[in-house]
Amino acid sequence: MAAITDMTVRDVKLKEFMDEYHRPLREDLYELRLSNEEAGVPLILRETEAALSLLLDFTHPQNILELGTAHGYSALFFAAKCPDAAVTTIDRNPGMIDFAKASFERFKEGNRIRFITADALETLEKLEAEVDSGADRYDFIFIDAGKSHYREFLDVCERICTDDAVIVCDNILMKGWLFDYEGKSAKRHRTNIKYMKQFLDYINGRDDLDVTILSGGDGLAVIRPNHDR
């Protein structure tokens, strides 16, 4: 097996083969993707985008929440894919905020994106207060922020989502370190690895959640509340 890369848990040849079948939603978004990829900016992998696109086709969300904006590609993808939906995205990284704002200004969809530049957990608590005061609940949530906080994120997201919401957690395989944790890179991230393993055990141990783990890209956990159990 080829060495695990920074972009994917799959070997390079397989990734290149899968990427050949990527269907961009729109040419201008594809150009943004290419510029981000060339600059080494973190963004959803092409396989991940394809999975999200299918999920959005099935669910037709009206109120989307994203934790982890980076340079804004995925938020713009959500807004373009779901033209009738409101999109809220959260990021606190100073190195990302200016780039994300610039991306949103370049695209017409940027006008429909609520960009909150603050800590995700603190913001989630404020969003919970908004929902308690009558604001619309979220029916599609994409979690792609601090990996050691996924359980905390999920706990709050469950309180602000609709009964039939879909919650998607990205990068759950953590570049393969979850099952292949030799080497310096894995050791530097051992705390995140520990918490991610605990998170996966937690969601799979809950009878009131429908959970599907996908290995495409860097791994996705697709979660839906099951109120019949």
Which overall shape is indicated by the principal axes computed on the Cα atoms? globular
Oligomer: single chain
Helix run count: 9
- Contiguous uncertain segments of 5+ residues: 1-9
Judged by helices, strands and strand pairing, the structural class is: alpha/beta
Mean pLDDT: 89
**Using only CA atoms, what is the Rg?**
17 Å
Helix residue percentage: 40-55%
Q: Largest beta sheet: what is the strand line-up?
A: 3-2-1-4-5-7-6
What portion of the residues fall into strands of 2 or more residues?
15-25%
Terminal residue distance: 41 Å
The major sheet is characterized as:
7 strands, mixed
The run of helices and strands is HHHEHEHEHEHEHHEE
Beta strands, count:
7
What does this structure look like?
The chain has 229 residues and is α/β, with parallel strands linked by helices. It has helices at 12-19, 27-39, 46-59, 73-81, 94-106, 120-132, 150-160, 184-188, 190-204; strands at 63-67, 86-90, 113-116, 138-143, 161-170, 209-214, 220-225. The chain has a 7-stranded mixed β-sheet with strand order 3-2-1-4-5-7-6, sandwiched between helices. Strand 2 (86-90), helix 5 and strand 3 form a beta-alpha-beta unit. Helix 6 packs parallel to helix 7.
Topology readout:
Blueprint: H1 12-19, H2 27-39, H3 46-59, E1 63-67, H4 73-81, E2 86-90, H5 94-106, E3 113-116, H6 120-132, E4 138-143, H7 150-160, E5 161-170, H8 184-188, H9 190-204, E6 209-214, E7 220-225
Parallel strand pairs: 1-2, 1-4, 2-3, 4-5
Antiparallel strand pairs: 5-7, 6-7
Helix pairs in contact: 6-7
What would you say about this model in short?
The chain is α/β, with parallel strands linked by helices. Helix content is 44%, strand content 18%. The longest helix has 15 residues.
